[in-house]
Write a structure and sequence with these properties.
Blueprint lengths: L3 E6 L3 H12 L4 E6 L2 H10 L4 E4 L1 H7 L2 H8 L1
Parallel strand pairs: 1-2, 1-3
């Protein structure tokens, strides 16, 4: 069985780690964490993600560039 690749983007590391811990508990997911838009953007270019959890504050601050990149890829 293939594991799902999930990107979690939130400016607070604790929030990212909490989500990752819960999602990875069943060993069906591999989570990647990013606290900034540029970190997330680099990961999106390298890894084909099945799901992206994105804090809305990053989207608003970044002018929706990250969402556009996710949709494009």
């Amino acid at each position: 069985m293939n594991r799902l690749h999930i990107l979690i983007v939130d400016p607070e590391r604790d929030v990212c780690e909490l989500f990752a811990r819960v999602l990875e508990a069943g060993n069906r997911c591999k989570c990647y964490l990013a606290m900034k838009e540029d970190e997330a953007s680099a990961l999106i270019g390298d890894i084909p993600f099945d799901l992206v959890f994105l804090d809305i504050s990053i989207v608003v601050a970044g002018g929706f560039h990250l969402i556009k990149k996710v949709r494009r890829l």
